[in-house]
Amino acid sequence: MGEKKILLDNAVNLNRRAFLGKSALGVGGLALGSLLGCNFYRKEGELVVKENNAMGIKGILHAPHHSAKVKRVIYLFQSGGPSQLELFDYKPLLNERRGEDLPESIRNGQRLTGMTSGQDKFPLVGSNFGWKQYGKNGTWISDLLPYTGKIVDDLCIIKSMYTEAINHDPAVTFFQTGSQQPGRPSIGSWLSYGLGSENENLPAFTVLLSRGSGRPNGQPLYTRLWGNGFLHSLHQGVQFRAAKDPVLYLNDPKGVSKETKRTILDNLAELNEKQYKEFGDEEIQSRIAQYEMAYRMQTSVPEVMNTEDEPDYIYKMYGSDAKIPGTYAANCLLARRLAEQDVRFIQLYHMGWDQHDNLPAAIEKQAKDVDQASAALVADLKQRGMLEDTLVIWGGEFGRTNYSQGLLADTNYGRDHHPRCFTMWLAGGGVKPGIVYGETDDFGYNIVDKPVHVHDFQATLLHLLGIDHERLTYKYQGRRFRLTDVEGHLVKDILA
Amino acid sequence: MPFPLKTVTKFIGITWMPLLLAVAIVGCKDKTSEYTEIDDELAMQQLPDSVDYSFHIKPILSDRCFACHGPDKNAIEAGLSLNSAEDAYAPLGENKDRYGIVPFDVKNSEIIKRIFTEDNGILMPPPESNLVLSDYEKALLKKWVAQGAKYKTHWAFMPPQPQTVPKLPEEDWVQNDIDKFVLKKMEEKGFEPSQKATKPQLLRRTFFSLTGLPPSVEQVEQFTKDTSENAFEKVVDSLLNTVAYAEYMAADWMDVARYADTHGYQDDFERTMWPWRDWVIHAFDKNMPYDQFITYQLAGDLIPNPTKESILATGFNRNHKITAEGGVIPEEYRIEYVEDRTNTFGTAFLGMTMECARCHDHKYDPLSQKEHFQLFSFFNSIDENGLMANASEIPKPYMTITKEESQQVLDFINMNRVESKELAVMVMEEMPKPRETFILNRGVYDQPTDLVSPATPEAILPFPNELPENRLGLAQWLFQKDHPLTARVAVNRLWQKIFGKGLVESSDDFGNQGALPSHPELLDYMALKFMNEGWDIKAITKFMVLSATFQQSSAISPEMQEADPENTFLARATRIRLSAEMIRDQALQVSGLLNEEVGGPSVKPYQPEGIWEETTGGGGGTTATYVQSTGEDLYRKSLYTFWKRTVPPPSMMTFDAASRDLCTVKRQETNTPLQALVLLNDPQLIEAARALADKSVQKVGESSDAQIRYIFQSATSRPPNSEEMQVLQSFYEDAYSKTETGALVPDEYLTIGEYEATSKIESASMAALALTAHTILNLDETITKG
Q1: Which end of chain A has fewer CB within 10 Å, C or N?
Q2: Which pLDDT tens digit goes with each residue over A97-143?
Q3: Are A252 and B680 in contact (CB < 8 Å)?
Q4: Kind plus residue range of the DSSP H or E element containing A297
């Protein structure tokens, strides 16, 4: 009941003047209007549904805390912990000192995972792949990411990310919810709660999954990563799938035509309306409206997911995988289409970055999965003028060690989890393009300049959407919770 | 609902609704992060004559001031604590010449100066806290100080007080003492009780409230005809004696106990805890007294002469998540498990947020970090591992249960479908020598500081010397005569179950930040009754259901919708949506599909294809792939649906089931488009609609009229009126004609799910009838208790 009441209070607050002037309006009607996004309200006792209202579901914030730089976010989550040392953080010293033990002065008490804590040696290892300089500033990018190299002038690369968690479950949960232990709302849910939706036919928070070819049997995902925690379930992430049912339970039953479906809904509404007249419970009106929203989703979801009308040059940009539903490339293309529909938060998860062993062979495939399509997404948004008000994020839950996990062979090695430094990139509105932020030491082990904590990243993300991370709160069991818990500093230097 | 609404109502009555709502807005602002300026002039004139600390002042102090001036002694700013009178009246500053509060002296009370100042440098709360006091709240604080700034102990920390049942002149309506308390409050507000619910509505509500299932058409008819004086009581008694009652109570307990069939992290391997679940059903079935029910679960291994049954009950404390993620440090996770037990104990039995005192003293409640770890120490002496080695490991300690035992001492465990000779179930077992417990700096596993020994929070009730310092002692502490929380928390949750909302709305928080009781006297009366009459769950439940309060109609007039939208004052019955379990179980029940088997391993009903597979990692195990059950197992009650914690059943989650990650005593109640999609398109519902259509033919013959009437009655527990019949008849006819145009294809629509209709009617009629049933199962009324 909690948040429903907040939304209700909020609606009452918003409409207080009107409300006090016209108390017959009824609290419920107003509240529901804001709850549903279906934009209906009571007028002289009658229910009026507003058509074509661009506002969608209202958020809890009447207005942003400050002017927003972006309207929406596409978060390309690279699940498993991509190795920064093979992709973005060029460390020739590791090639020079290949096989030497990691000096204790560098490791400096860093906690190890249970997977390497038994190792008696920590042999340094550099990347097996070549590097080139790209863009105006000659930024070093691995040969594994040639397409990313070409858009480097649009990227803000942060090399100095760090986290507190060292294992997947707590680390991914930390990135997505601000807490290592499950139970809190995810970023997308916070945004839906705070800002609402700008599209009344699609959920504000959508999720797309793909499985990497680097390590097909890698780390799992958990639906709680896009869960609403203690927020209203309207804010939960809705998974869009490359399956028969693009959204769970979306398809009409077989043998039932659209026309028949419409008849069901009309009759339901009529009978529910009679019930409302008898019992006066506003929830019934809300129920009627939810069925209409569901009906609209049945059209809008397949529409947005049907990419057949995309021209060839677009498929060329995103790569041949884009024609195969459920791949990362296809999901990147879908992400752009969802962004065009003003979906607030579009979250991709690409699994398979957990290269404890056989790293060179695996990461080559894994990088190929994502390189072209990630770059294409940024370029595509740019050519449509949408990069100005969209934020694209690329990154995983932690980095990887500069030493080999297990045996260091001539051409083969692995890397364990490393929380002390890793790389992410941002692109889009409000962020300085073409910069590299933060620096790690020559061993690629410690941050030497401008560290960015996970909560700092989250605070900055919220800031770009016009939200002060300390002021978007939700009171649950007596405590005001926020995405950044009790920490988080805005990374001002990367703001345009 | 914040307090100002309630008090002010007393003074202004119902005709002043706009004003009342203005006040409500003020009171509600604490729930949002936005504090818009609101003109409170009108409201200010309505300040109560006598300002009360518990009801007016503490909610404000706790919410806006305690973070820096509250119980956490390490976070006190400027040396000022407003937590107690002694601290608040103490001199401040270098010269000790200033005072936070001087009773009766507004001018010299620093807090009053600072809340009214326009100087942002000294304003309280400081602007950077993002907290704001409304004009009304400032005026309340000022008046409180002027009246002497009297402090009181937090209401929930004082033992329940014996209550005099109110004497009222008009008592025709009253059925038992509950009604007298409720009516008194109503009269203070100028409200009147609603008329009695119709018999069908009452029966439906009672069935759902006691068994989670609807009555059958025949049961409604029988009850409607029964005019004997105790007709209703007879029904209640018979329902309380069904195993469905026990299953329904157990379903609720699964949330409290965060029960699941998997371990909950990463690859989320399967575990076998369902024998513990079968024990819970058994305990409710034989109406085990609440004190014994809890003592078994907390300390069944430590009671004198423990039995296999009492040891199995301790599985309660092993239902928490356990990790198998290779890289973790075992001790870090072992600490998490002990924390989970501690916090579950706090939420489930004390209604306190113990987790808030893990890293520092509690910000709002008088619980120190030391006390947190003292409570933690009760649960810390289990010889357990933080990390599971692989999918097949059963985390120690565990007990084994043989097939023979399941036929003798543990005959409530359903091992019919178990192939192996014995089962291993995780339980609690004390180490020979208790593990030492230390306060953990910031709550971090590898930063122990001071050694602590088992004890309970002083502010609630000190731990008596004569009790053993172990889990058994802790259970005994809970059931001390003067314990302020145990009975209140338990009875409040039962009330929430029956009435939809607790007398304390925040059933998970009885602390300073929690809601105040809407009917404090009634809460105490119920708590003492529960305690003094042997912690008898069935008896106290029956008492609630037999009240006139429970038996009111749920219709809402526009006036009452405005005057009491949340139904705090119970002048009607709350119209409650069915839970996730009830929605599915009702469909199975009315269609005749329900498999009434009790207990046993969890089953896997219809679920959209691929949702386990698309998120799974490489860990393998039985939870990588969803192997759907077949035949009768598709139709078990939702209590028996396999619960994979990282990918819980989506149709149930859509209807607000708890995720089972943590102890949950109160679910959300939402209304979303995804719910409409589930009800319209879940094969389980479509199949049930067809089975219901089929059943109607068998019950009432070939007249479509009679069939529709039967279906409607089955789903809503009442006959349709003529208007409704008209709508449904023409819907049916239209659907029939659609089978000719191809808009409804019987061969396809009638083959969703495994069930095959047996009636000998043409498929076009069956399709039209099934579609009608499908529509009726989607009615708002159908998914409501009545």
Answers
A1: C
A2: 999 999 999 998 888 888 888 888 999 999 999 999 999 999 999 99
A3: yes
A4: helix A282-305
